[in-house]
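Interim report, section 4.2 (structural modelling).
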Amino acid sequence: MAVVEIRVANHPYLTDPAGEEVLYEIKHALGIDAVQKVRTAKVYRFEGIDESAARLLAEKLLAEAVFQDYTINAPIIKDAPVVVEVAYKPGVMNPEAASLMKAARDLGIEGLVAADSSREYGFYGQDINSQHIDVILERLLVNATVERVVTEKPATLLISGRPGQTEIIPLRGMSDAELMELSRDRLFLNLEEMKTIQQYFRNIGRDPTDCEIETLAQTWSEHCGHKTFKARLLVEGRVKEPLLKRLQEATFAANHPLVLSAFVDNSGVMEFYDGWAICGKVETHNSPSAIEPYGGAMTGSGGVFRDVMGTGQGARVIASTDMFCFAPPDTPREEIPPGCLSPHYLLRRVVAGVRDYGNRMGIPTNNGSVHFHRDFRAKPSVIVGAYGMLPVERCRKGQPRPGDLAVVIGGRTGRDGIHGATFSSGEMTHRTTEVNASAVQIGHPIEEKRVADAILAASEAGLVRAITDCGAGGFSSALGEMGEKTGVRVWLERAPLKYQGLRPWEIWLSESQERMIIAVSPGNLERLLEICRGLNVEATVLAEFTSDRRLVVTYENEIVCDLDMEFLHHGLPKRVLPARWQQPALKEPQLPIPDALEDIYCRVMSHLNVCSKEPIVRMYDHGVQGSCSLAPYGGVEQDGPNDAVVLTPLLGSPAAVIISHGLNPVLNQIDPYYGSLWAATEAVSNAVAVGANPGELVLIDNFIWPFPDEESLGALDRAVDACVDFVRATGMPFISGKDSLSSTYRGKDGEVIKIPPVLCVSVFGRLPDVKRTISSDFKGTGNLIVLVGQRNLSEMAGSVYYDLYGYLGKNLPRIDLKTVTRVWKGIFRAIQEGKILACHDISEGGLAAALAEMCFGGGVGAELNVPAGERPDYFLFNETSGCFLLEMSPRENPGKVLAGLPHVVLGQTRDNPVIEIKQEGHHLCRIALSTLKRSWKEPMERIFGTPGEAREVG
Amino acid sequence: MKKPRVCILRTDGTNCDRETAYAFERAGGEPHLVHVNQLRAGEKKLTEYQILVIPGGFSYGDDVHSGKILAVELTSFLKEQLQEFVDRGKPVLGICNGFQVLVRTGLLPAARIGDIKTTLMHNNSGRFECRWVYLRVENTSCIFTRGLAGRLLHFQAAHGEGKFYTDSQNLSKIEEGRQVVFRYATSNGEPATVYPDNPNGSLNAIAGICDPSGRVLGLMPHPERFVDLVQHPNWRRQQFREPHGLPIFRNAVTFAQEM
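Predicted structure of the assembly:
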């Protein structure tokens, strides 16, 4: 059947923001000046319809005559010297295709069998050469993992193929070398694990199918099996309990009264009010984001949302968070290792992915951060969190019963993301991009929104016995885990496919997004299917839970997998891993005390780890759901950053959810114990700064670590020790967590890049009355500025201040948990009593950065006195977490309000928009707020600058 | 007085339905979330409702154009019901994606389905943006803004395709017919010509328009996100007599009650 092409473009005399954005990037990111103008057009292709039907589609659907033109089977950009079309590769799902099919059907068009869309770029300029175009395509417009340049009209849009066969792998007879060859690039298992599998099949007297091998590799992957976290460690001759066990036991011992579910479900659950519970989960999506940042970030968001949706008997997602670590965006091209993408591109595309998924799902993204360090140049850390709300009576993980049916709902299964779980568990090499292209896909947030709506309806109707998402490992992981205690019988040929041609093991392992599995009793099946139909959600009975504790999968009556659940889930050899942390050889620098602080103040404010991230936040919808009652940015010009988000998710009720986080990778390079304490303290301090009750907060851990060799594992051991000590000292439990231990890059010339180890601690909690929360913007002039908390000013290592001089340092902040716990309680009480007008937590950039941000929010200046005898630069730029700046009315007595807490009154807010800092009457610094603000805003505005924004309307 | 029944129309990708329902509850209405499939199947009919709202979101992913796929669906299957609803003078409100849908059905600005005269293009910035903006309420016959003319309201805008555009002939028709209900404004109340006060590059700073009768209203910013004081980003430092979004919903409820 012929393919008809329709091209649509804006009238030539109108603006084309997409084209201008590309032009901006060409000029600013690529530095190519030969291109003067870029115009874009959409290309739509339809198979099975004639030209008159195409004309109807063009006029009724594709082109709006008010501002657009169209052509049929003819070019539309005719005057550009170079025109290039970029499309998704065949097999990569284009989310728009389904909408095209639907709208054509709604318009009464018959015979349409397939539709697709893509974009065409016209490049204008006399001096453009083919080299320019190659660079533009390669570095800006085409991610070869998922996209391609279209050079000729395709003959068909359909992907054809016959179902592949199941193969028997002659495993029993393989030598060690053959076993490892099989494992490499595909299974990512070590020799001992391969031999354990080999022995299992020798024992049962047959060779495995490809499906069985793949199922075992997925279940035993680091990503799904958390082998390192479950291994016992050998540290300095002493055997220590597994990391996971230590964290879980600390939580158990804390015995927090509000915790309803910890470490057992897809997210951790705590009690809220009025019969409601809140849950939270934070995930990483580093490996996919490194090779296709847009799709990787999207599927990261989609996955963590599904974790929340699949908690208890189904939850509603109420918030999303995002924490990223990249190399500095201006890292020179030649310093980026082969096979890796530039951080400028990664940052922009990851942000776009998080933006497009969260916004479209209608989930407010209102807490996050971005950190920069050179050693993220091979592999970024991309962390996304999600929080949800569910009734207490349906908040505990469900257990399917024999005879229950497993219904897959949502998206169809394709070849997407095959080997995602095993791939995420491997180290990244220069081969990664080539071999693992299928591990990435483009998310479809609208599909997931439909699924979310269906789950809520089914949950409210009481139809959900158990639910889980299809994440890493696809059906294999979801059904394997759900049926662990019962057994499950799967009819694989029933799975709805995106296209034909998948082998049975591919269907089984595919990580196609937006799929969930619901266990339902047979009597409730029809009602579940009806709910799904009403919401345009595809639902199919895929399996039945049995009582034989076996995983039996057939494909058209052929048995493709028959494994004992016991071996699958518990056959993995337990490891004892050696771990040895070595204190790095670091020195403290001897820095002179600067004469004038204005310049260094500006440089601190414009440091990438301090500067305003507002341009990113503005792209996220943080107001959807109507629940945001403390925005990421507030104050007179809406650019004063707040420390945490406060949500009132039950509209009309003052009950509030508070969410925040903390991380500081560079400190972990110095000492992961104190770096981790810092992160946890920072996370909680952010929440306390807005009014959270430290007694009603819970924690989530995310360890993103280099590949766990002996040294990195030693660092991890110390980080976990810190977490356990934190729980013991504060009583706050970790109730969910995730480890991702593969952030090492190995180049072919032997180059090894390890990321600075990341512990991201997320915090969430509850508060009965939103009115008793506060923001960071100064509320008036003549008010007192008070520093609360204990700092040892010589602990400057890892600070932005040191970094500006090119030093890391050795003496890092060592948080005293006893004091900080008292400080939190004191601040909470003072906020409850209404004694605090504004509060800001001190973190990167120190007291000086916190002060400036409070001034920005309030539109007021400040006068500050550095206490006599203190070194002024350290006083201003020390980054000890657990310290706060407060604004109090001069009528209050800080000595009374903050009795028993380390505190000092530093100065007052002033009408004059200037920050003035003195010591014993001597001027240290006098700087206009506007100057500081410019420094603080400039870095991200440069990266996210947009072509259209300065232009007048018209 | 009896609470008017409000149809909050949902479909795939609608995501501001709950808070819009809440806004109508606060204003004294009786909101119902109705899926477009229920209307298509005849399980529910528009005649059962006094007010119709198309809330914000990304209906069908905003594929092709924002709101387009839903507009085509409504025009194809619910044309008569919709036209009848409008012709009977019942209030219709489109917020954000709902505004885009109303424009793409032709219900705005001319109240005639299939007659598409204006459009909402991609923002000049080329991207989705979320920020609070000032809107000046113009002096019109719009029933949703009774008593608000001349007021400066503060709402959150959150969209990627909100640039109001039409040709000069239609623009003067809309202006002369006093169909411009909201204009993006500076904090002094002047029509905003530059970013970010005018967040998307809309012609004549147009943020919302109504049909000639004043009963069909569409706007890009989100009044439903400011019906409680704590929804405003600066409620801790600013005083408000009442949340700015509330009177808009209350006007609709009152109008429906008086019909």
